[in-house]
Amino acid sequence: MEKQEIRTFGRRHGKKLSERKNFLIQNILPKIVPNESETNDILEIGFGSGEHVRELAISNPNKVIIGAEPFMNGVAALLSGICDENGAVLDEYKNIRIFPDDVRIVLNNGNYGFDEIWILHPDPWPKARHEKRRLLNADFLNLLSKNLAMDGKIIIGTDHWEYYDWILNQVKNTTLYETNLAHDIIQTRYQKKNMAGTAEPKYIILSRR
Ligand SMILES: C[S@@+](CC[C@H](N)C(=O)[O-])C[C@H]1O[C@@H](n2cnc3c(N)ncnc32)[C@H](O)[C@@H]1O
What we know:
alpha/beta, binds S-adenosylmethionine
């Protein structure tokens, strides 16, 4: 990152990883990091355990999907889900690239033209004193806009309705506008965990002006 950015995520590491997951991080991850010389079509930011990245890879076999996530246990979970027992990437997941860090590093240094950018259940940072940690502020949305194809779409889902309203307010100060394109969206792990007693997710679809 060019300037010191405020941290928008919690832990980088959780419980100790298995031998298989450590092997995949050391040996497979370096081979599937994003590469600007190929066409990169879809970005998912903060993929958690990566179930939606896998879904995107299967439903878009001819597109390259980049997943960005700084939480290493999540990165390890995705690696484990896309590799066979010998540690080889399964054919149906060969179009996945993983960036194991803050997505702003990729976006600030690149000049991408993504068709789709997905952000499902971004950390809502509900306490007022943590509001500055919210990722989807106007500056970040403009950074996404710069890295979006002219007819590209940003798809945001959250079950935190106050954050939803906050994001829509931020959009007003960006080069993006809200559209109502329908999208099939699978339930992520975070969403399932939070179903009891919380709100239905709401979605925001954004296009470039
Ligand atoms: C609440 S979790 C949701 C995970 C997943 N999308 C789901 O729905 O299960 C939010 C995720 O965003 C990630 N995150 C936060 N800031 C990020 C950033 N700057 N770049 C990439 N990922 C980020 C966090 O590490 C965390 O895993």
